[in-house]
Write a structure and sequence with these properties.
The protein is mainly alpha-helical and about 280 residues long. The chain folds into 2 domains: about 200 residues, no CATH class; about 70 residues.
């Protein structure tokens, strides 16, 4: 499966961050940097931590690996009904973001070339096209705000406390980095920029999932092939069987087998087109 090129991810991240900047999130309280032990280095929180703020041995803030608002959910208690509403939000946003990447792959795939060799005008036009492509997700607002809207009042307080602490720590780390370079960055500005970037991170992760999924491959490669109803049904059945057998962790040979099986149901013209698209991945 194709992987998301770094330059494409960067453009998506910047575009989504730019769109998120059109709204002003609440400012969190600044967090204190972790004190360093004279011998042991920065303090490392235990595994049963009750915070999103964890530092690596090098003193850097640990990457959460997912949007902060989603990570915070692991540290709050949700009743079954609330958990179901939150899960619905996460699923809808993930599916929407992934589908936007799939639907606009021709545009997204230009990102690397535009980023490395495009003129300022080309980059500007491309940037606006990406923002327009992401508009359905942008219109939903931030993940943090959408989750907050379905949380009980007592849970919102805990949810906000976790995120305020985290954003304060991220902002402080950016201030420290700027200071090390001899630059000056106000903490409030650093925090504001960090919070703004969260939509970009959400889109970047969705893009990685989408471009590595079988759904992307089938949707993109068969787009415009004028499949018959029989072909669509057979290909859909192959994908369903594939998903059931591999349980989300297919081997390379299983992926290759899926391609061969799909191509077997295509006519000569359709195979030619699909093979040309595979070369372009």
């Amino acid at each position: 499966m194709t992987k998301l090129p770094l330059a494409i991810g960067l453009v998506l991240f910047q575009a989504a961050s730019f769109a998120a900047a059109q709204t002003t999130p609440p400012e969190p309280r600044p967090a204190q940097t972790q004190p360093a032990d004279a011998l042991g280095g920065p303090v490392i929180e235990p595994d049963d931590r009750d915070t999103l703020v964890v530092y690596e041995y090098g003193g850097e803030l640990q990457d959460l690996g997912l949007p902060p608002a989603e990570a915070a959910l692991e540290l709050v208690d949700l009743d079954p009904q609330t958990a179901e509403r939150v899960a619905k939000i996460l699923t809808e946003r993930a599916m929407l973001a992934e589908q936007l990447i799939i639907d606009n792959f021709e545009l997204v795939s230009q990102g690397e070339a535009v980023e490395t060799s495009g003129s300022k005008l080309e980059k500007g036009v491309f940037f606006l096209q990406i923002v327009r492509a992401l508009k359905p997700l942008i219109d939903r607002g931030s993940l943090e705000d959408e989750i907050r809207s379905v949380l009980p009042a007592e849970t919102v307080e805990r949810f906000d406390a976790l995120l305020n602490e985290y954003w304060g720590a991220v902002g402080q780390s950016r201030v420290d980095l700027a200071r090390a370079k001899g630059e000056k960055l106000p903490l409030r500005k650093a925090v504001r920029e960090a919070r703004r970037d969260q939509l970009g991170k959400e889109v970047e992760l969705a893009a990685q999932r989408a471009l590595e999924s079988e759904r992307f491959v089938i949707d993109y490669l068969t787009k415009g092939l004028e499949l018959t109803a029989s072909q669509r049904d057979r290909i859909r059945a192959l994908i369903t069987d594939f998903a059931g057998r591999t349980m989300g962790d297919p081997s390379q040979s299983e992926k290759e087998r899926l391609f061969v099986e799909v191509i077997a149901y295509l006519n000569e013209q359709q195979r030619t087109l699909i093979l040309e698209r595979i070369k372009g991945l």
